Amino acid sequence: xxxxxxxxxxxxxxxxxxxxxxxxxxxxxxxxxxxxxxxxxxxxxxxxxxxxxxxxxxxxxxxxxxxxxxxxxxxxxxxxxxxxxxxxxxxxxxxxxxxxxxxxxxxxxxxxxxxxxxxxxxxxxxxxxxxxxxxxxxxxxxxxxxxxxxxxxxxxxxxxxxxxxxxxxxxxxxxxxxxxxxxxxxxxxxxxxxxxxxxxxxxxxxxxxxxxxxxxxxxxxxxxxxxxxxxxxxxxxxxxxxxxxxxxxxxxxxxxxxxxxxxxxxxxxxxxxxxxxxxxxxxxxxxxxxxxxxxx
Length: 296
Ligand SMILES: Nc1ncnc2c1ncn2[C@@H]1O[C@H](COP(=O)(O)OP(=O)(O)OP(=O)(O)O)[C@@H](O)[C@H]1O
Prior knowledge:
- By secondary structure, this protein is α/β, with parallel strands linked by helices.
- The protein has 2 domains: 2-210, Rossmann fold (3-Layer(aba) Sandwich); 218-281.
- Helix content is 28%, strand content 30%.
- It has helices spanning 42-49, 91-101, 107-116, 130-143, 160-177, 212-217, 229-235, 272-281, and strands spanning 2-13, 16-27, 31-35, 57-62, 65-66, 76-79, 148-152, 180-185, 197-202, 205-211, 219-225, 237-243, 247-253, 266-269.
- The strands form 3 sheets. The protein has a 6-stranded mixed sheet with strand order 6-7-8-3-9-10, sandwiched between helices. A 4-stranded antiparallel sheet has the order 2-1-4-5, with helices on one face. A 4-stranded antiparallel sheet has the order 12-13-11-14, sandwiched between helices.
- A hairpin with a 2-residue loop joins strand 1 and strand 2.
- Helix 3 runs antiparallel to helix 4.
- The longest helix is centred in the middle third of the chain and has 18 residues, at 160-177.
- Adenosine-5'-triphosphate is lined by residues 13, 18, 36, 38-44.
- Residues 4-228 form the ABC transporter domain.
- This is ABC transporter ATP-binding protein.
């Protein structure tokens, strides 16, 4: 079953479509990287997924039911971009609040996790560091024992060590529970070792959706003489290219296998960051399991 599926999903604010024609699916148990530039529609998509917004077009299904369905809410946890905690509550009071609000609450998980992180239960949330606040907010989301955990920019404003710690904590929770996680970020390098499913949003449209390993295996970076570049580009599906007078570099979608090339060309695999940036630079190109990106 898919943890999340959208069909022709659209959301507009007044006359502007923040999200348009968005069709994607995320199988259960995946850790999903949702990436895209500022204003791409990431927060809008996440809010639609957790039922905080209603679609203007199309459908969103979460864990087999329409997003926001009453029966699904206890199975979904959402951590908003600003990591909302009550500043004047102590950590212990935040946990009590979580316990009252959530029928599947796991107090033992919450206290063990916070003890391992050395976060004092008697400290007021407003007096914690940014990294500690992120960890408390994540702990509350995890103690809900969700089947789908949705995190909007969980690493924003954290230093590199805190980013690493948050991701490590998240990964051990995923390993224990098998839940599906969807997290948005601007920083692709933070997601490399963690995520196994990629969704790229750009200008309110889905540009890439799929298994990261398969996507990486299906793209190559070719370098060769500029005068032959048109011939090579005509045979292959070029995502992005960069040419000087003498040399051309093409990032191509091969599907699978390596393209046959003139010996003056070299080719190599691509990193996740190279692939994502190539698509973001070329919003008209797409890597989708279903029809290519519709033009505006
Ligand atoms: N409440 C709102 N009213 C009007 N327009 C909005 C509202 N929320 C978002 N938008 C617009 O919708 C588009 C998508 O915004 P959204 O916040 O979903 O993008 P995002 O990818 O999360 O951006 P960021 O990475 O900057 O957080 C943007 O053009 C934004 O200006």
